[in-house]
TrEMBL record:
InterPro entries tied to this protein: ABC_transp_permease (IPR001851)
Top-level taxon in the UniProt lineage: Bacteria
Protein name listed in UniProt: Xylose transport system permease protein XylH
Ranges annotated as spanning the membrane: 74-94, 106-126, 133-150, 156-178, 185-204, 224-245, 266-284, 290-307, 335-358, 370-388, 395-413, 419-438
Cellular location(s): Cell membrane
UniProt keyword annotation of Chaperone present: no
Keywords: Cell inner membrane, Cell membrane, Membrane, Sugar transport, Transmembrane, Transmembrane helix, Transport
Topology relative to the membrane: Multi-pass membrane protein
Main location: membrane
Pfam families listed in its UniProt record: BPD_transp_2
Length: 449
């Protein structure tokens, strides 16, 4: 007599891990290793009902928007609204705030700290912290200056060595954290102290190394593409690229039998992006043109966002940040993810240090110190990256830096002291964390956290 053996359970049932669900950074149950969903009725049963709103026109999106707000899935909405309010207030106080010159200067001022913040976003996605980023940026800027000025190295080679050095320092932090188990807070706090001392040692007794005003490093933040076509060409490329990606994504969804965006929805989103992009290009062309530093920053943000949301490695980062045990059971190499994320943070800190040195044409004891680290972390959080891990995008660094630098620029025009600027920025940071906490609570209440 044969025994009744129960059917074996598919391993795919154990592979659900937390990952990103869309540009807003909301998380869902996605596995970086999960096989493609089967076609037919089984696939239809797995479709998220929220996707169906795409076929219901404006009414469907309005209903979905209300559901997302009630469920705490706010995405970048609070920071965008806050940025608009900040600009309206400062423009009403001083008509020079939205002038082409001030906005152009603001677009360069956000670059150095913003690049550091991009690396911080990767670490925060794991639910960890990197307190050494400012010190790493200062030490690598000092290394760049010594190699470039004192030793006469080619500037490109010196920059590459400085960035590699930042990645090596991040490798050290990540190894202690991932392999030995030392908390990231302690490891990076030790790094903050150690690399600050290394920075002072590299700079020597003078404490400052001036860079050539006309050299390549200085030109990173002093170069503008004055041709009108440069800024408008970038705006057109961004708009066309967004439409192409959306259209191809729609085609793939349609082929897979998944509800798709309506063409009107795609055109509307493209139009909004186009208005913002061409508006920014118009403003920049009214002054000196497209800054090279801003172009590099935007390219880094787009690449980082692509890595985070469109690659297996990026989905693994979200998985580890959302639920480390589930990610481990799904086959994610947790130690590798942790180590490489801190390497990215170290490398981006070094890149930020290079641009900070370029901005003032020197590397000194003040590079990467003072409030640089705090502003980099604040920018990531204000921009929408969760301190609890598993939610955020590289665009958080861009949005957060725009908020912080807009406050600093507006108050500088009004002659407000730095003390008040710090207090206002602190209040904005607290508001961002409160919104994040309330959002997580709402998601838990609705069963989506």
């Amino acid at each position: 007599m044969s025994e009744n053996i129960p059917p074996r359970r598919s391993q795919g049932a154990h592979r659900a891990t937390r990952g990103p669900a869309g540009p807003g950074g909301a998380t869902g149950t996605v596995s970086p290793l999960e096989p493609a969903a089967p076609a037919g009725p089984a696939a239809q049963a797995q479709i998220d009902p929220r996707l169906l709103v795409r076929e219901q026109g404006f009414a469907g999106y309005l209903q979905e928007f209300k559901r997302r707000v009630k469920g705490g899935e706010l995405g970048s909405l609070p920071v965008v609204v806050g940025l608009i309010v900040i600009w309206i207030i400062f423009q009403s106080l001083n008509s020079q705030f939205l002038s082409p010159q001030n906005l152009s200067n603001l677009s360069i001022d956000i670059v150095a700290t913003g690049l550091i913040s991009v690396g911080i976003v990767f670490v925060l996605l794991l639910g960890e912290i990197d307190l050494s980023a400012g010190a790493v940026s200062g030490a690598c800027a000092a290394l760049l200056a010594v190699l470039y000025v004192n030793n006469g190295w080619n500037p490109v080679t010196a920059i590459v060595v400085a960035v590699v050095a930042g990645a090596v320092l991040g490798l050290l932090h990540g190894s202690f954290f991932a392999l030995i188990g030392v908390p990231s807070f302690v490891v990076t706090l030790a790094g903050l102290l150690a690399w600050t001392g290394l920075q002072l040692l590299i700079l020597g007794p003078n404490g400052t190394i001036n860079l050539p005003d006309t050299g390549m490093v200085a030109r990173l933040t002093s170069t503008y593409f004055s041709q009108v076509i440069a800024a408008y060409g970038l705006a057109a490329l961004a708009t066309i690229g967004f439409f192409a990606v959306s259209y191809v994504g729609n085609s793939r969804r349609r082929a897979a039998g998944i509800p798709t965006r309506t063409m009107g929805d795609i055109l509307f989103r493209t139009a909004v992006l186009g208005i913002v992009a061409f508006g920014a290009a118009f403003i920049l062309n009214k002054y000196k043109g497209l800054p090279l530093a801003l172009l590099i920053f935007l390219a880094v943000v787009v690449i980082a966002d692509f890595v985070q949301r469109r690659t297996r490695y990026g989905r693994s980062i979200f998985a580890v940040g959302g639920n480390i045990e589930a990610a481990r059971r799904a086959g994610v190499n947790v130690a590798m993810i942790r180590i490489t994320v801190f390497m990215i943070s170290g490398a981006m800190a070094a890149v930020g240090g290079v641009f900070a040195a370029s901005r003032i044409a020197s590397a000194s004891q003040a590079t990467g110190q003072s409030n640089v680290l705090l502003m980099a972390i604040a920018a990531a959080v204000i921009g929408g990256t969760s301190l609890f891990g598993g939610r955020g995008t590289a665009f958080s660094a861009l949005l957060g830096m725009l908020v912080i630098q807009s406050i600093a620029s507006g108050m500088a025009l009004e002659g407000v002291s730095n003390s008040v600027q710090f207090m206002v920025t602190g209040a904005v940071l607290l508001a961002a964390v409160v919104i994040d906490s309330v959002s997580r609570r709402s998601q838990k209440a609705s069963g989506r956290a």
